[in-house]
Amino acid sequence: MKRKTAFIHSNDYLNYNFNDDHPFNQKRIAMTIDLLRMMNLLEDSDLVAPRMAEDEELALIHDRQYIEVVKEAGHAEQTPALAASFGIGTEDCPAFVNMHEATALAVGGTLRAAELVMAGEYQHAVNLAGGLHHGFRGRASGFCIYNDCSVAIAYLRQKYDARVLYIDTDAHHGDGVQWAFYDDPNVLTLSFHETGKYLFPGTGNITERGDGQGYGFSVNVPLDAFTEDDSWLEAYYAVLPTVARGFKPDIIVTQNGCDAHTFDPLTHLSTTMRIYQEVPRLARDLADELCDGRLIATGGGGYDIWRVVPRAWSLLWAELSGQDVPQDTRIPQTWIDKYQAESPVQLAPTMFDPEGIFPDIPRRPEITTKNKNTVEKALLYCPKG
Predict the structure, then answer these.
(1) What's the pLDDT score for residue 79?
(2) With 90 as the cut, is the pLDDT of residue 2 above it?
(3) CB under 8 Å to 316, separation ≥6 — which residues?
(4) Residue 3 — pLDDT band, cuts 50, 70, 90?
(5) Res 1: pLDDT
(6) Residue 216: left (phi > 0), alpha (psi -120 to 50), or beta?
(7) Rounded mean pLDDT of 125-130?
(8) Residue 32 carries which DSSP code?
(9) Which of 170, 241, 245, 299 is the Cys-Cys partner for 385 at CB 3.0 to 4.6 Å?
(10) How many other C-beta atoms lie within 10 A of the C-beta of residue 300?
(11) Among 134, 172, 173, 193, the one annotated catalytic
(12) What is the CA radius of gyration of the chain?
């Protein structure tokens, strides 16, 4: 059954553009929209325009001085020397023209999603330009300038007094959101990510459980490198329902980075497109069960923009809007014809990865056992239901 779900979008989202060589490339959103339209999964009536986040809203999370530095850096001919102290002008987060405006629009998209869902106008809302989970109070980090997830959660707390369950399935730990609410028992952050032993940002250990009254409300599931679908999903299904039912949220906010796929060039996990249908499906079912369906989904990481992100985010939209994508669904040839010439790799012909196309994972039993132990420890002190 098709559900009333908002697709928050503006073509101005593509202005969040560090440079042509940077791995964070929002062309992936345009490619996703093209794929959805060619599959008849997205209509004009689904689209909702974002709004700009106001400075007062950004300041719910970010320091005022940092906001002013972001504004200045986006309008200067040369990056101000002071910007480096705020993480701007680095290889990860170089300054770009209109940086404040582009990022405030991405934040405003997630705020718009929150308003629509809390007002009951839509059951779910998707903002693929969001998911900038590494942004800190006074520092850019990991391709993220402002942290839309944190700002939206703070907004939900302030305006609606809502208890928020934040679910982060990016391959990189959702550090910025975790630290923003580390002592808040009304926000539970749950992150499934590759262990930080060898991957940025290096945090997300099981022992990061929260502080003070918020102890137990930060839950981390660091998975071993080369974790494949079965073990990844086993952890997801073991932890998420237990934590969600124990916490009893008023709304769920998800970050849907899709860089855990084996094709992703920046991480070391080994999942396939299968998990990108299962992840939003369970989150949606729990939202139905626990909070009248209220769910906001954001984008996130994903650096194979050709073979992974458009397929993964199309599955996200299909699940949240109640549209089925069968396992044998083929990619429309018109979409392949449009993008194949500029793609450095052969585009996938099907929505799901056929079984057996990826090599077996060495140490698979050892990795699976290690992840089972991680799950047991992750559940020790969190709410359980």
Answers:
(1) 87
(2) no
(3) 126, 256, 276, 279, 280, 297
(4) confident
(5) 65
(6) left
(7) 98
(8) H
(9) 245
(10) 28
(11) 134
(12) 19
Residue 332, amino acid: P
**Alpha carbon distance 237, 39 (integer Å):** 29
Task: State how far the Cα of 232 lies from the Cα of 262, in Å rounded to an integer.
Answer: 12
Q: What token pair was written down for 70?
A: 């972001």
Q: Could you tell me the domains of the chain?
A: 5-380 (3.40.800.20)
User: How far apart (Å, rounded) are the C-alpha atoms in residues 303 and 268?
Assistant: 12
Residue given tokens 């009304």 in the structure block: 186
Say how far apart CA 170 and CA 179 lie, in whole Å: 16
Phi/psi at 371 (5° precision): -65, -35
Residue 163: CB atoms within 10 A of its CB come to 18
**Tokens 């008023």 -> residue:** 250
Which amino acid type is present at position 96?
Answer: F
134 is known as an active-site residue: yes
218: amino acid identity, one letter: S
In single-letter form, the type of residue at position 252 comes to I
**Rounded CA gap, 146 and 66, in Å?**
10
Crossing angle of the two packed helices 309-320 and 275-290, in degrees rounded to 10: 30
